[in-house]
Amino acid sequence: MKSTRLMVLALLAAGCAAHQARLPEAARAVPPRAAAPVVPAAASVEPVVGLAHAYRAAGLENLREGDLAAACDNFDLGIAAILESGLDLASRPDLEALVAELRADVARASDDATLAAVAEGEEEAEPASGDAIATVEIPEVPSEPQTLTPSKPATRSLLVGDMPLELNNQVQAMLNVYSGDLKDFITAAYVRSGRYLPMVHQVFKEEGVPLDLAWLALVESAFKPRAYSRAQAKGIWQFIGSTGKMYGLDIDFWVDERGDPVKATHAAARHLKDLHAQFGDWYLALAAYNAGGGKISSAISRAHSRSYWDLARTRYLKRETRNYVPGYLAALLIADDPRRYGFDFTPEPPLAFDEVEVPSPFQLSVLAKAAGIDEDALRDLNPELRRGCTPGDHARYTLKVPAGAAATVIAAIDAVPESERVRVVRHQVAKGETVARIAARYGTSVSAILAANSLRDARGLKVGAELVIPATGTVYADDARKPVASKTSSASTLGRKITYRVRPGDTLTSVAKLHKASVTELASWNRIRPQHRLIAGTHLVVYVNTRDAAQGRAKRTALSSPGLTYTVKRGDDLTGIARTHGVSLEDVRRWNSLASREIIQPGDRIRLYGHDDGPRTR
Question: What domains are defined for the chain?
């Protein structure tokens, strides 16, 4: 298991400052964003790489500018350029690395917790470590370590085995680091520990693990549930994915239970017990928790010793592992007697919460607003949720809410309109469709679709396969483009459905204005974001006269004359139909409530009247 090391304060302060900047407008247009980039043939590698790098460069410019949506789109197109090129990624580690970089870029750029989609990224992840412990230069271990007597033995109990505290130059060096350059960071970690220590002690007692080992979480993560290391270890106990799954933690598109403090603590307790059973010594077990059991077994074999301190004198352990146990002992000594080492802190009170079953998926931001509770508090209580919402593959989900807020949350759930709820759309792949084009259709990203469907790359897409597409807004039935009556709009107020083919230069604003709809309505009907860039040749669903119908302002009279009904045939257009029947194009449009640029389709039925017979709109 790859451990986390305590981070340098400067790294904490740095954060994601790039999100705050703004850049020139021109950066957004280079290269132009489209749903399906044109990529060279599979045999031509360099143009593909060049195109991907061009998209990434544009995305980085957008990111520095603060245009997160544009950045996310450009990064996503860079991914699509590679994945849809037909190149064999397995034989090109450089391409795999570039895809990984672009996915990490998407994680940084995404400003939508539901539609953001990075297979390996973490929403709201915090840097987990720097080089503070791993790179500390410390003296060699003396041949006879000094065994300490705890200052307050009654405050610590060992339920399994024995763990003497040994003071040597290594431990003293770590004490100096903690009380020196890292003092502010370490102090904050001890303050934060109060949220979780009672729970950790309870779990460790149930699992039969020494309670003192609770302070290992300070060395691993500084008690940060969202801590995420360069080794892709996550959570308070810094599990890598494979080890977390081995101990029963779910990790998928929606949740990462490595971030769940309670579940991860149970997993850590079982893992520590297994390592102690393997090596018969807690110091070796801790070293194995950091480096992995295989590396410790190898070091034991090569050094011909089962003493951690003997192994620490060799180069068979990496510096990080040589520093790891001293770092833990130093943390334990400070916890035992803070003032002795120059610390003065008051731990925070334990986290208090209620649990509520909510229909899933449900966005945390929407629920918090409806219930009048703090969104950050709700997120902090549920750090395992990766997308800012409860899982899309659960009908219901047990959500932690602030203590005393359960009744308020339950009452608020029914008040949230369908248009603000998350819905998982299921799309059946048709012949000729690409992941990029499907993503454009639903206003999401290539990464989102790949991650939600556990696809390594776009070549895994098969005709007829059903894709899960996470999105928000209008409820979708079997025909994913057809809105279903909801609390905010009924079938009778939607108006007449038409299909509009996007032309070069069209924008959502221009199309909405053409059809007398709002951008929000048009985006909702087509499951796209209001900022979505249209692609010439694609189609939009439009409901004409929706606003008039919804507000009751349309006052059309009933047909005053039987006239005739004409069924549109392939190749027909309104101009030809009007000419054939000796009427004006304007009358045909007026009789059938058709917009000036509305397209008719084969099978549509057109009402026709004499020049003076048609119904009039007053």
Answer: 9-121 (no CATH), 146-341 (1.10.530.10), 353-419 (no CATH), 564-608 (3.10.350.10)
